[in-house]
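Reminder to self: tokens first, then the designed residues, so the page reads top to bottom the way the pipeline ran.
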């Protein structure tokens, strides 16, 4: 995921090397939560199960072996291209200790960041309703 220009200065100058080390040397090119492999296209279900292309085995959202989906489950089957990212566990881009970084796929990264994103959304809405429009006044209640 690209770094926002406003946050670029929080990252160290060697961030690309550090990110590559976390994703490919420490995690061996796999998500550290579910085990999905970087750069491959996998078949996924809406409940988080996915087909491991290296072992042709179905795995759950934690990377454990699970049951093969039935025909009804296969209706929600879709494919996705896996891209790993080095995620900050404390959401602070200035804290680049190896214990604070984890290699995560898109799904695991979004699930991990969900509480943080909800809190930020709440703050944004709250700020918007408090300030309103500088020229037209407060926003009307919804």
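Designed residues (142 positions):
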């Amino acid at each position: 995921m690209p770094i926002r220009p406003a946050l670029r200065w929080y990252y160290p100058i060697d961030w690309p090397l550090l990110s590559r080390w976390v994703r490919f040397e420490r995690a061996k090119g796999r998500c550290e939560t579910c085990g999905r492999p970087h750069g491959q296209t996998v078949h996924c279900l809406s409940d988080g199960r996915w087909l491991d292309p290296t072992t042709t085995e179905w795995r759950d959202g934690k990377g454990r072996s699970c049951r093969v989906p039935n025909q009804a489950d296969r209706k929600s089957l879709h494919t996705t291209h896996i891209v790993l990212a080095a995620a900050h566990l404390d959401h602070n881009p200035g804290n680049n200790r190896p214990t604070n970084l984890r290699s995560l796929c898109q799904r695991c990264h979004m699930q991990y960041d969900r509480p943080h994103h909800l809190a930020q959304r709440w703050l944004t809405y709250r700020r918007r309703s408090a300030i309103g429009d500088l020229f037209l006044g407060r926003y009307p209640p919804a």
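Residues 5-39+82-131 form one domain.
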